[in-house]
Amino acid sequence: MNSVIEFYKAWQPGMDTLYMSLPEIVLGVLALLALVFDVACKCCGAKRAARGFINAALIALVICLVGGAFPQSWGAEPKTIFGYSLFGQISTPLFVACAFLAINLSGIVRSRESNSEISAPATTHLILIATAAASLLLKTTNFVAFFVLLETLTVSLYALVGSNRNSPYSLEAGVKYLIAGGVSGGLMLFGIVLLYGGAAMAGTAATTLADPLGYGTVASFLLQNPDNLIGIVGAGLVLAGVMFKLGVFPMQFWIPDVYQGAPTHVTFFLSTVSKATGFFLMAILLSVFGGIWDTILPVLLVCTLISVVYANVTALGQRNVKRLLGLSGVSHAGYLMLGLLGAIAVARDVSDPHWIVLMLVLVVAYLLVYILTVYPIFSVMTRMPQSDDALQSLDDYEGLSKNNPLLAGTLAFGLASLAGIPPAVGFIAKLGILFVLFQAGFYGSIAVMLACVVISIYYYFGWVRAAFSADESGKEKTYLPTGTCARIVLIGFSALMILASLAYWGVIS
Amino acid sequence: MDNETLLRVILLTPLVAAVVSAFFFRRSRVVAPAISVTAAGVILFASLALLLGLDPANPTASATLPGFALGGFTELETIGLSIDKNGAAMLFVVTFVAFWIHVFSVGYMDDDKARGRFFAGLSVFMFSILGIILANNLFMTFIFWELVGFSSYMLIAHYYDTDYAAMASKKAFIANRVGDLGFLVGIILCYKQYGTTNFAELGELIKSGEMTFTSIGLLLMCGFLGKSAQFPLHVWLTDAMAGPTPVSALIHAATMVAAGVFFMVRIFFLLTPEVLTTMLWLCAGMAALGGLCALGQTDIKKSLAYSTLSHLGFMGAAIGLGLPEIALLHMAMHAFFKATLFLCSGSVIHACHHEQDMTKMGGLLKKMPITAAAFVVAGLSICAFPWFAGWYSKDMILSGAYLAGNIPAFVALVIAAIGTTLYTGRMFAMVFLGNAHGHGAEHAKESSPWMTLPLVVLGVIFSLGAGWFLAGTQGLPWLDGKMNALFPASATGVFAHGYHDLHEKLASAGLVAPMFILGVVILVVGLGLAVVFYRTSTGEDKLREHSPVLYKALEYRYMDAFYGWYIEKVQQRVAMFVAMLDTALINMLAMRGVIGGVPAILGSVARRYIQNGNGGIPVFWIAFGALVIAAALVCGVL
Amino acid sequence: MSCASTLLQVAVATPLVAALALAFSKWLPCGAKKAIAGVGFVVPALIAIALLCAFPCAEKISGYAFYSSCEMLGVPSLGIWLQFGLNGISLPLFLMAAVVGVAAGLRALSTKNVELRGLYYAVTLVMFGGVLGVFSAIDVFSFYIFHEFALIPTFVAILLWGGYGRKTTAITMAIYLTLGAMISLAGLFALYFAGAGAGEYGFSFLGIAQAVANGMVLNGDVSVIFALLLFGFGILVSLFPFHSWAPDTYAVAPTPISMLHAGVLKKFGLYGLIQLGALALPLGLADWQNWIIWLALGNIVLIGLITMTQKDLKQMVAYSSVMHMGPIFLGIAAFAISGGDVAGLGGAVVLMFAHGLSVALLFHLGQSVYDRTGTYDMTKMGGLTAKAPVLAAFFVAATMASIGLPGFANFWGELTIFTSLADIQPAWLLGAIVLSIVISAIYGLRAVAKIFYGKNTGVALSDEAFENVRDITVSERLPALILFAALVVVGFVPSLITKNIDATLKADFAPAAKVFCAENCGAEAADEDVIILDGPLPVLPAVPADNCESCGEGKELILAKNITVTVSGAVEEEGDFVLSAEDATLLKALELAKADSEATFAVVLRVTARIPVDLDELRNGDVEDVPLEDGDKISVE
User: Fold this and answer.
1) Has residue A42 been placed in a domain?
2) Among residues B128, C85, C102, C297, which is most buried (max CB within 10 A)?
3) Size of the A and B interface in Cβ pairs below 8 Å
4) For domain C525-637, which architecture applies?
5) Across the interface, which of A401, A412, A454 has its CB nearest the CB of C175?
6) Residues A136-153: pLDDT tens digits?
């Protein structure tokens, strides 16, 4: 045990690790500022100015991140907690952008009287903390930091889910998420401990001392003795924990309830940042657990296929919009997992680096497209005339094309892209995944994926049908006003969906 | 003008006339008929010039039009037009009769408001029938075969506002199409077997020993059965009388139905003995049936239609007996006198203000002398009165049947001959003798010269004159051998050859005299019975009075009833069953069931048991799931 | 990129740009919307006609004229980028798409009471652009994506302006078409990964044509790929068991949409089958030809019977368009049945061209009948000719065209297909297939008789309402005239399009045809081991002639076809002689057997025939030489 203590004593945060985590630090500062502003300025004018400042800061951060202001050192040696991460370059700007959009959505959601209880500063604070934790999580190369950051992210999500105090659904969802998260967190910790124990027992002396819980040690341990019982069970449990985050078969039963209960902007945040984190973590862990790849692959593949089929079939019966989105999220997580497994399978037996990067880029592009498509749908959902967020069903969408054609058009484009129908960019992304799967030779999973796409047509187009059919219910529908800048944003996203499909390949290569 | 351009002019003038009058002069009352009649005139003169130009011994001419080719199918690369000895005869007969019928229809349709559409239809018909005559391969024949069926459909449906015409035109076109089905399959098999469908090349192939096949012969005969309304597909001709009378005269008496006979004569070398015998039985039976059933009709045109069926049976029997030239001869003669009879009935109908029921006519002899005269001459000719046109061909067929020793066929043909005399006598008595029985007939008066001139030319001159050319001495050649009696010499080559062969055979068998006597006996018996039984018009059909049962039998609605039953009960039932099967099985079960139902059940099951918002489920599954994954990994290893 | 190829790109882009402009034109006055939509519809048609005239003299890359490609849209390294071009087969279909599009556009412009008019035009324009793209894009994936352009517009159009029962039909249509699209996508991917995308022009028809030309060998399982393509396209093209979406969709969709969908979009699957199925996977076609025959027969006979029972005019036209898919499928199968003769494929392309026009005309006129009588139920109408003679004339012409009357383009297609099916096994099938001309005549004429002839039944239109029925207006007459003119022009001068089709088919499909021919003759090749090639070539090693089923993917094909003939009678050397197929004639056999000069008469005995030949005439050449077949017996006296 003492080797762990010595290790941490020896570790001082060098300048480069500080520099590398600068974006997260800025996020933390902004989160605190959000609380301070709320306390400091009383009148609502100041509050709006504060919120404006925070939004501006976030945009600035995204721009400099994308611009490369914070160079992620690629080759950092494993001794620091924060090694390099292939996805660091992509994930941080993505998470910050999602955070900004979530905060923007929370502004709209709160304007509805039934959600007045949600406190603005708390939401902003929690979102920013969660984003910082998520982007840091992807940079770490050590299981301790991995667990700590993961729990920070999950705890802030518990609070966010339950933030609408006067809606029973939100509180119920919060509690459910807490219990499920707790159990999976516990199991994951048990996995990590098993790995640590296994690595120590196996006595790979040289590396244990330096970084007992580092990815490197675990990777080399598993590489050297692939059929070590403890190592496998530990890896399995850790993977189970990450699958909880991503929402893959045995671990995805919580998603529909929590998505329905949580306020809409939190659902958006859950389905984008939390899912993306799960995806990137899965990628990192699969490369860490490379040693026992042959045992992991069949189990993961089976779980993913079951989750895709389960999600699509259950979604058919759904009338509640947010549960529908939850299940569609699970199916897209399944497609992402399939793509990831395919890409890694290809990467293992094809040596040419260019080809491996292309595979991974195709899969990550699918994630980007998923997030790009989900935002317009959520912004339309926030503006719908339903009484309580959690009870929004397809019937609320009747007559949308007549009352509010812009929302109907955006919804149509978004859902077409989610369903993967050609003119929209979703299809091209699916094409990429199919390309990877064909390359990896997973013919069975291709058949399942195509079948599920066909099944998904039923509920995606069912939703579009509801939006475009005449309104028989006759009750007067009040839509939240969409400001001019919101209109421009929506039109921008719809146009992006079509143009992106044209430029998709160019961007990729 | 060499033969090439003449052939092209003959074929394309009616098409141009049809297009011009259909698109630009539909409304005008004078221009459309004028265009159509001049077109018919141009065709007549062009074909006369062509026929006179050909040497009688071996009359052949050919021209080509651009066609199309696709892959291995090069049959229609160049659309060839050609004339041979059969074609020459058919060309003269068709163009001559058509021209005079065009003249007649100008008079007949003077009170009709849709004259433009009628004459355009006539020109389209001319284009198609000339196409059949000039075609030099089976595919070309099939193309114009269909176009003839289409033009007869359009012309039958001229009076479109009557339900009867609507039904009749549909029935005619579908019956023709059924015939064309067998015809097309026959052509395709012939093309596959011999590699070509050009008549000349087929001739050489068969001459040089190629096998001939009964199946192909029978299938090609389907075309004949459909077009010339023989046994199974004869139901449409009597209903085709719904069209205006010139149409019935031109299409359903003289030319279109004869085109079937002409086609069979043209591919005679392809027909195996079995095909010929089947044809003999079918046509002889139809001849007898037609002859008798003509007595059971009160509508003048329906009676003449059954007479046409009977005479087509004669021609088919002639082919069946192996006498194609005689069949062609009878077709030519029949074209003249049957067209005359139809035109007489047309002039009578026109005079009695479109009254077609014979029981309401009568006493028209004095009122319409020229029509009556033409009717008498044509009537005698159809009854094969010696030295009239009909006598040469009809008695020849009877003697040919006897010579071939085929007694049952001979008996059937004799019955048909007797029937012919009976119904002609009946028609004459009911229409011209006695006194008028309908207010239309009371003040009927002779038709305008437009109508009477064709009657005179076709009826008197040709029913009589046409016969003379065969009067034993190869006719009366004039214009230094170019014309033979009233026919161009090249047209009559085929008749003369066939007639003289059969004549020598009969002479050698010493049957000439007995056959002459037989002909006279049939004539006397038939006409005598008609005069005795039908004496004068009494405003009521004698046969129906005396024996309604026999009359009912002769009215012959059985085949129509049978087809009606088939369409209503069998075909419609099967179609309904298949439709129900389609909507039930594929639509409901497969489609809604699989795509709608199953997922809905699964969805609801999931919603009720797994996804019902009970907090405990996710926790249980996570714990259970993790353990399952770990176990799977472990056992994966072991 | 010559100006013509940019013209092609402009033709495809105009409708899409116009649609975009219309989508955001809520504040534009109605007249401006009509103007933009009009431009979007008419410009491609004019360009199409210009391209037809310019096609013969345009410079072609292995058959593809107006070639243009933009590497930016796509991944050149993977062999997938957007390429445009027209060859002999796609030119007539592109022309048909343009003509039907103009007619559909004019029909859309002339519909009176439709709300959200701008969106209505936009939806039709997007479909029109997609349809044009299908026939001009030669890159396989963009060809696929252009087809899918039409799914959402059709779905939205049915929902917003559809007829009775549109909600369920929209969803069934969406699910069926996506199922078909996904299966064909799997097929295309399988084809791509089977090595069809390697050439200099990447994974495009042009690339595949060139690869096939120089003997491409696919390393995937050919018949599985073909099966995926067949059933994927089969669903999109309403092949028999998968047809139940088509009639409901066309009956419910607004007329311009069903004109474009039934008339043009359905040809995507068939065009794909010809360009990919028949060209790249001939052995797959050979394996699956029986399936195609029996399913297409289901299309013809069963759907034909169902069409006869239809009371609703639009439903009947929809079912008839499903029925006419049967002969086209058979035309494609005929390529295998007739052992490599491309006549069937040519007939299929001509029938696709003609059927697109005639079904669009029928839908257009059906809408005019509906505008006048207020219903589609044929039993309730009657005697319309009295009031609308021009409409009656056009409708009769359209029905005659669709039932295959000579003088219209449909007939040439059907005739060529039926002829190419001559040696179908079992033989009675030919009768059942040609039965389609009778079935189509029955329902066609029944419709004409019920609607236009006879008396007004007074159910749909009371007598005084019947009085003020007017004939079709100019705006309805123009599209009908355009479609009718196209049908008649090609009907009378088929060589306009068949010349190009024939040239392309002969050029591109020769290697595929050789496969069939080699496969058939391979089976009968003599089984003795040494095959002596006539002439100077050295003796070839024995090539075992195993049965042709197994010579599937990648096997080397037998080089020259040889026949053996036995000569007997007045000759020096009696017995068997081997001749190469090209010049196996009687004279050659006699030379080999060194028949003595004064022999005067020879008989060629064959299973199917007996040919007597006079040798003197043969020798001095006034009788042309008799070609011999395998297993002939020649006796010389």
Assistant:
1) yes
2) B128
3) 112
4) Roll (3.10)
5) A454
6) 888 887 888 888 989 999
